Amino acid sequence: MATPRFNDVLTAAVEDITEHGFDSEERVALWMQRLREALEQSMMPPAQLRDMLVDAMRAIYRRLIERGDILRHHPGISRYTLQNVAPHLRDELDRRILASASLIKLNRDEMVEKTLRRFAGWATSIPAGGSEVVERREVKSDVRKALANLPFVERRVMIDQGHKLTAALSETVAVGTGAIAGVWHSHWRQPGYNFREDHKERDQHIYLVRGSWAQEKDFVKVGPDGYTDAITKPSEEPFCRCFYTWLYSLRDINRVAPEMLTAKGREQLQQVKVA
Fold it and tell me: CA nearest 1: which of 38, 54, 50?
């Protein structure tokens, strides 16, 4: 991440402070300003980074919505039905792009400030008149630590925001097309995946959508796992990759969680079978 321009300024700053020490606030402030300018010049321009983010988010949207891949998590829903909620899905895409861009900017600002704080902490520790025992290479390495992680952090943010977009689009489809319940899926069996223990415990459990059409008609009741809005959502927590598959019919509920059907629901299901 650190470019020759930034490294040159940092080297000059360390040499100057090593020679003169913390003899004035102005000296440290001058170098911090120069370092800040060099840092900003070192980074990918914000407009270019935003273009990359927008391209990545739109690619996810095209795959899930325009190509229909999201229907794998919504068995029984047609492409035509999916298009009926498309305006809401586009709004969710725009909202997630704005949120992701804001988060990346905050991370960048934090990395810059952390780098400058490291320099200031070292510079103000050198006595006036300088020092002959400064390990220059070690000092520069320490100052650059936070900055070195920035590309990795930005990549992780983009990946995580992609998962959040996927989960948000799926939930929007579920709400807009009348899902009754969701079956939680965790990737805890995947080698190397850093799963949360409570998310592993939710795997294959079934959560009722509060206020669904089926509940309003008294066809279903909440099961032992509770409601979807009583727990965190898939991908809500950082780097979570869990997801729901959604249930839309009384037949689906009867197949996976018959105890969630009420007597009225069982009667309705029987009438449908007879018809």
Answer: 38
Looking at the DSSP assignment, which residues form a beta bridge with residue 206?
A: 183
Query: Both tokens of residue 52?
Result: 């990359």
Alpha helices (H) along 223-262: 250-256
Find, among 105, 232, 104, the residue nearest to 159 by Cα: 104
Q: Which residue has the tokens 């704080």?
A: 117
Tell me: the pLDDT tens digits for 82-118?
988 989 999 999 999 998 999 888 888 998 999 999 9
Q: What is the pLDDT of residues 200-236, one digit of tens each?
A: 999 999 999 999 999 999 999 999 999 999 999 999 9
Burial string for 218-257 (b: 16+ CB within 10 Å, else e) reads ebbeebebebbeebebbbeeeebbbbbbbbbebebbbeeb
Q: Which residue has the tokens 């739109």?
A: 58
Residue 50, SS3 per DSSP: helix
**0.85 cut: is pTM over it?**
no
Sheet bearing 243-247, strands edge to edge = 206-208, 181-185, 243-247
